[in-house]
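Give me the fold.
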Amino acid sequence: MPDVFAPGNLVRIKDFQFEDGSRRDKYLFVLLRNDGGAYVISSLTTSQNKLNVSARRIGCYFDSRISTYYHFPAGEVLGDGNFSFDKETYIFFKENVRKLDVETLTRYGDPTDPFAVAHITTLNNEELKKLLQCVVTSTFTPQDIKAEFTAFMDSL
């Protein structure tokens, strides 16, 4: 079985527990993996444009109120499969890029359920670089993470 938590993968975790104790299904992008941990975008991708930002194509955008954000148009195929978000989808990078332990992530859901932790698609290197670059340019990303992501981008 391929590594679900390899860099570039979009993963869905059933019944993910958030910092506030709430639980719901969650998509996350794996940005980098090393030493048993995975840097992921741990916020929910959202189709709720409550910040009223504008975007038309896939990619990184800047808004002075929130720094950078990434947009996925509805219906645009991502990565190596045929997955697309049903609605316009955004990732806002405020305090949501963190290193999570892969062992902990693999324990989510019912172990007899093959879809408890599911690989959805894998971004190609160019798509992953664009997403990483957007994270690196965010004013909310800690400097040490920026350095690791920059080195990783240079290796792709």
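Residues 84 and 109 are 24 Å apart (CA to CA).
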